[in-house]
Amino acid sequence: MFSKKSLLIILLALAIITRFFYFNHPAEVVFDEVHFGSFVRAYFTHEYYFDIHPPLGKLLIAGMAKIGKTNVASQEDFSKIGQGYDAHDLFMLRLLPVIASILFVLLIYLLVLFLTKLPIAAFAASFMVLFDNSLIVQSRIALLDIFLLFFGFLAIYLFLLSENKNSKQKWFLIILSGLSLGTCYSIKWTGFSMIFAIGLLALYQLFKNKKWKEFFIKLITVYILSFILYTAVFAIHFSLLKDPGPGNAYMSQNFKEETFAKKFYELNEKMFFYNKGITSSHPFQSKWYHWPINQKPIFYWQKNPVDLNDKQEIWLMGNLTVWLMASLAVVVGFFMILIKLIFKKPKDFSLFIPSFLIAGWLANFLPFIPINRPLFMYSYFLALIFSIMLFAYLFAYLIKKLFDSKNKKRIVLSLFILVIVLGFLFCANLTYGI
């Protein structure tokens, strides 16, 4: 088996290849770049815009566009899917999401290894993330979801790392966890679910060490810091959007003259009600029950071919083997938890790990059930990652229990790798638009 360092290098190399292969194709606006590209451009033109999501994701992309010396302010606005655009400017707008996606593969390896102490579980989880087509598609264009995933699970990892550290290290990691949590829900409100995940980890640590004072101080620190960051993001947002723009139509007449506190409250109120009030249908919208089995993929882009043999399309479609394995793990994990609770067996099966991961999956899945407005399969990404980690733990546990020889373990791992890669290749042409 490879060492931890060697495996991380291999995962990094594969993540770079899968994410940067045919990168910046097409040099045209793809799917919701129509919206997010326009919002990013507004930070350069200073024209006020309105979006139902908090500003940080767009600010991050705008920051990279600034570093990359783009000309988005002088370019035509993003108006329709398939619109041609300057290749350099698109490259810089898309660069930060793809970097976050590469780092996310490594983060999942480190997180699962720390959580389970099982190298096979860490490898399995990161490999599934590495070769999931939907995560690749979503991270190769100027969209926000990969930031949401990265900072949400980084907050969990940092909080876990803080346990059993000396005082200075512990509080440094707690502070970083709070800032990561705030970054997560400052990108999309779906990141609020990670507040619940951090709370569960704190409760588990309290159950083990009975340190009530530390429990409250840690949680208060994480939550308050996250909200301070969330508030600061809006201060930056307002300072950059000084001029009138299309977003003013959504706000009150005196909005520009209000204090920061009033602006902050009004904008968040408007975001909530406009988010809740979306009623227009979309041909590729989906329901919550479609997601676990990878139904209802989303059509992102196509090139109008001269002949049918030259057809190029991009679809948001998951690796079927990854999504089905992850969904199966939720069912199996639930029954194994029941067996453990009733019969207290098997003794070497952790009750906390699958319980925490299923709770994380439920927290990111159940809230979508009563929502009536149009939803899309990328709303399942946070839940997907929890279920992938659950599969990885169960997979590693079963390998350890059922196969005593290294050769048998290698055969099973080889079959796992083969199935995942074949699932990836099955729809790779629709991932890369080739």
Overview of this structure, please?
It is a single chain. Strands 1-2 form a two-stranded antiparallel sheet. With 434 residues, it is mostly helical. Helix 1 (4-20) runs antiparallel to helix 4. The two termini are 35 Å apart. The protein is built from 16 helices and 2 strands. It has one domain.
Q: Taking Cα atoms only, what radius of gyration do you get, to the nearest Å?
A: 22 Å
Poorly predicted parts: none
Shape call: globular
Order of the strands making up the biggest sheet: 1-2
- The chain-level structural class is mainly alpha
Q: Report the biggest beta sheet as strand number plus sense, adding barrel if it closes.
A: 2 strands, antiparallel
The quaternary organization reads as single chain
Mean pLDDT level: 94
Tally the helices. 16
Task: Report strand %.
Answer: under 5%
Give the helices and strands as they follow along the chain.
HHHHHHHHHHHEEHHHHH
Distance N terminus to C terminus? Answer: 35 Å
